Amino acid sequence: MLLAVSSILFALMFLGVPIAIALSLAAVGGLTFSDANLPLTVVVQRYFTAVDSFPLLAIPFFMLAGELMMVGTMAQRITNMAYACVGWLRGGLAQVSTLASMFFAGISGSGAADTAAVGKMMIPAMEKKGYDKGFAASTVATAGTIAVVIPPSIPMIVYGVTAGVSIGALFTAGIIPGILIGLSIMALNYYTARKKGYDTEGGKFEIITFRKALKEGIWALFLPIIIIGGIRTGIFTPTESAAIAAAYALIIGMFVYKDLKIKHLPQVLLQAGITTAMVIFIIAAANVFGWLLTAEQVPQKLAAMITNFTDNKYFILLLINMVLFVTGCFLNASAAITILAPLFLPLVTGVGIDPVFFGLIMVVNLALGLITPPVGLDLFIVQGIANIPLDQLIRAILPFILVLTIDLMLITYIPQISMWLPSVLGP
Q1: What's the pTM value of the predicted model, to 2 decimals?
Q2: DSSP codes joined into one string, 26-43
Q3: Which of 8, 41, 48 has its CA nearest to residue 280?
Q4: Which end of the chain, C or N, has fewer beta carbons within 10 A?
Q5: 188, 115 in Cβ contact below 8 A?
């Protein structure tokens, strides 16, 4: 049965069928081949069971908050703040792109949204400054992966719901790894800028420019602090924090910056609704697929097979990372988490690995899927903005994939990178 289901899924993906539909049809095929003689109405029931979850309400609210923040001058203010901080460094515009993505990561939780917002502003500016088009697009695409690591993160919410662990703890665990990834990208930017002679004029940090940018962008930068601070102090839950974030973005846009108008709201709500529907549909379909695997006792068989081979948790983490990396090349992060978390959790908890720590590893690993072919979403977003051939873009992004892979290994084998902050702040 497992072979039949996998064959159906990969055949449909090869034909270009949307992932949610491919997962659903593969599940239907699995039920057909199963010996359990379950009715196909189970598929519909599992759809509703998967999304009938209060914590998942955080997804539409964070999507709405991100859309509201992207309207008007909000994105430009955040970029100006990033420019004031690092624009004077070697490879300044590349560094600005990365830091701006880190700022946006604390607002939307969506890699695609961050990549599109930063890419539209920074890729043309980098090209005008003489940067190679492939390097410019690769920098923005790779920095967009930080959005699913630094909280709020949609994949973290999905993992928290799927694995039954604290979303607040996951958010806290993602802060330092997200900063590490951002600094690693900036280090590669600096090396490449020196090697290829970008921004040779240099500059220096100007406190006056910084103060002005901070004054203009401070209200937008408060949002991540409100989200994390409110969750960690127990003032509100992650779901409530998402609703507060949306309300905050609406108030700041309409009454402080005054560039969000009533006429913008229909389009903002429509776009947030479309994006949310896509994510929720994928989660529902993946839940059906994952439920089928669980019903066939695949997690137990997988755990037994691996533990019979080795019980070394470090080697097990390496094997899981390899599986996740390949999976991320083909599946959306939310779908991969919904399917694979129930498969791997019995195994990792059995060898003493913290579920929160494992969730962080899953999220960081699957973030790489945003920039790896054949379905890397960030790749196709920057390809459209930069108007660059895909093969040229893939060659340019390979050094960034290597850097992020090194970061993944550090996060995997030095647990303190992710777990120190949650241990200090508490569960």
Answers
A1: 0.87
A2: HHHHHHHH-TT---THHH
A3: 48
A4: C
A5: no
